[in-house]
Predict the 3D structure of the following.
Amino acid sequence: MSRDKRPAPIVRLAFGRLSPVTAYDEEEIAGFANGAEFDLKPRGTRSIPHNGLYWLQLGHIVAATAAWATAEKMHEWVKVKLGYVSPIFGPKGEVIGMTVDSASFKAMDQATFNVFHDQAAALIAREMGINMSDV
């Protein structure tokens, strides 16, 4: 999957310096060439560490099970299985397909992401026998 399809690394400004917020962010940033430049925009009120934890957990599960090629593919599976999808309508009003909804910071506030993460953990426990809090 291309880099621009993965969640962008998140950094925090402290005392005039930018630092990665989670281990996932640090790994992603390490993949860029030295001197790379980025556009920055401030984030909302959703917990950055909680989001990073979710992606780190998915990454560990993918690495341990090889059930998906990437954490992003597993994330798509989670969203589809949990019903985070929307219909695509044809010209006569018929459903011709489905799109997978976003879990981005724009799409989910912290309360919604809390529910999503809990649902994802329950799904992974039920279907894979993995307790996400142990990952």
